[in-house]
Amino acid sequence: KKQAEKTVHQKKEQSKTKCRKARRRHINLVAEFNRRQRKNIWLETHIWHAKRFHMVKKWGYCLGDSPTEKSYRACYRAMTKHCLLQDLSYYCCLELTGKENELLKQLARICSIDTGLTFEEAYCLSGRFEGSLNLYRPDHYPEGMLGPVTFIWKPKDKSENRQLWIWMHPALKQDILRELKAIFQCSEPEGIYIPEPVTSVQGEKEMDVVLSLGKKRKKEDKEGEKAVPVKKIIGDGTRDPFQSYSWISQTTGIVISDRSMEILRYRLIGPLSHSVLTETLKAASLQTV
Asked: Can you list the GO cellular component terms from the UniProt entry (predicted)?
């Protein structure tokens, strides 16, 4: 009899700890999402896509492949009459910072004017428009093609240095990054992710959160909702968060930084795209010091 009562009591405790409200508490969801992103990074729109798309794991990311419903006509109607938004944040971004003449001198070795515009095209160099071109191994044109990329310059300011952002498919990132580091002689790492130091109390709280996934919060927790949340995973699908993300050249001062998943990228298609942007984005007020 005592054994039966003990079994019933255990079943009641399990049912209490697995209630939907406890499982869907925000602090538990963040820790659970981090655990599920150890192999494949999620985009910011992952939850929205996961509810409506068949997901696939490619290039270190979890991406929406095909819709669960027949929405092709709706997508076509949006592209032709309204606005369709695509999340391209899985595309990788490499940032080059340094003197303009030094950047253009070395970038001319990995592209050719015979294929179209280059990095020094006037209307692209001003920063007003985005350009696209094909990259090749240094001094190997027309052989040794690396792949297509898009780029945009940051508009000029009072500083001597310019900033250039190059966007590429994640399958091309490692090859292009290796060639850029070679031509600019950026061998020394400048930026390495170092976890923020936490006090012993904070560390214990975070460990308690991870270990108590799906369990009901203890009643003696005085802080309640103010408990320390588990931080979101840092990094992207093509780079480990503890690897270097920035490299500098001691000879030219050029800095190459990996900005993948730090700068989100969305594509708007359709005649009402500009109207959507106008209603969404508001110009910031200029502040002079």
From this structure: nucleolar ribonuclease P complex; ribonuclease MRP complex
